[in-house]
Amino acid sequence: MSEHQSFSESDDGEPDVNGSTARKHTLGFNVTAPRGETVTNATLRLYALITRDQYAYIGVERRVRVEMTVPSVPAGHHGHDAGGEPVTVRVCEKDIYELHNAWETFDVTFAVRHWQKHPSSPQFLQIYVESVFSTAGNGGDMDVATMPLTDSEPLLLLYSSVRHRKQSRLELSLMISHEYDIKKKVENHRKKRSLERRTRVRRNTAEIQEEESNMIFEGELPVPGLPQHAHNSLGDRGRGRRGRRRRAKNGCKMKPLRVDFKDIGWDDWIIAPVHYEAFQCTGKCFYPLASHLTPTKHAVVQTLMNSVHPDRTSRACCVPTKLGPISLLYFENSNTPTYKYQYDDMVVLECGCR
């Protein structure tokens, strides 16, 4: 969802059913959308200003009409860009009854889609506030706020969607660009890690012992064709029980991961939330792979090869297999506040072996 502000001008409109002149406001916008993005819904929010006798028991009722002008299509031409005389088109209208000042919403999807289809057309909306009945007007009055740069200025909210893969690529590109922005903050940390990797001659002793213990205690029933030291995990006697307990403790599973955007330097472009629970996948993928880990055929083969040749083949990796979205309010293009109800692939929902 994106938010667009407007500029406005006000004047007297046409007479309403009460014989008085209807109020008219002209709102101008500058709506742009990325290529390939489709506007699914557009909502105009107007702040209704109510003035009435404080002792009156009834509210104020008015009809608010939203119109726009489009060029007519001369004979023999096709499309609105043919350059004919302007024609007034009613976008929507709404009868409003209020006792106090309140926000009102209007569906202006038709107008925004027209502006997207015809970028050269002027982006103006005419707002008319008129009486509903001939007896109206004695109990108070109603208008809409149009002053820019105030808390009650008109707002145009756009709800858009793109194809899932393309949207994910754009969001990922945005994150990567901000990752480069904080590159200097983590440069020293990366150098330190690189130095540790270069100076590491062999694996940590504890890790070697754990792998050896996994090979020894994963079971005692031999598998035909496997070396004597490679055992399956179906044994249920002696040390095999300890192997199962070890697998239950160190197996692939989902664990909490609280992400604070300030910690990673993203608080300068992400407005809300300040932090969220992302979860993470940790642990090892032991053979045989359990069905709830939804292993691929390749993961099964790789894990079996690890049982035969642990020095040549690594285990399958415990990774997220299903991700979910969060709602995100952030700055797009440096200065445009953008709200997305579903910012995809931000929360781990399931873990598996791949």
TrEMBL record:
<comment type="similarity">
    <text>Belongs to the TGF-beta family.</text>
</comment>
<feature type="domain" description="TGF-beta family profile">
    <location>
        <begin position="239"/>
        <end position="354"/>
    </location>
</feature>
<dbReference type="InterPro" id="IPR015615">
    <property type="entry name" value="TGF-beta-rel"/>
</dbReference>
<keyword id="KW-0964">Secreted</keyword>
<dbReference type="GO" id="GO:0005615">
    <property type="term" value="C:extracellular space"/>
</dbReference>
<keyword id="KW-1015">Disulfide bond</keyword>
<keyword id="KW-0732">Signal</keyword>
<dbReference type="GO" id="GO:0005125">
    <property type="term" value="F:cytokine activity"/>
</dbReference>
<feature type="region of interest" description="Disordered">
    <location>
        <begin position="1"/>
        <end position="25"/>
    </location>
</feature>
<keyword id="KW-0339">Growth factor</keyword>
<keyword id="KW-0325">Glycoprotein</keyword>
<dbReference type="InterPro" id="IPR017948">
    <property type="entry name" value="TGFb_CS"/>
</dbReference>
<dbReference type="GO" id="GO:0008083">
    <property type="term" value="F:growth factor activity"/>
</dbReference>
<dbReference type="InterPro" id="IPR001111">
    <property type="entry name" value="TGF-b_propeptide"/>
</dbReference>
<dbReference type="InterPro" id="IPR029034">
    <property type="entry name" value="Cystine-knot_cytokine"/>
</dbReference>
<dbReference type="Pfam" id="PF00019">
    <property type="entry name" value="TGF_beta"/>
</dbReference>
<dbReference type="InterPro" id="IPR001839">
    <property type="entry name" value="TGF-b_C"/>
</dbReference>
<protein>
    <submittedName>
        <fullName>Bone morphogenetic protein 10</fullName>
    </submittedName>
</protein>
<dbReference type="Pfam" id="PF00688">
    <property type="entry name" value="TGFb_propeptide"/>
</dbReference>
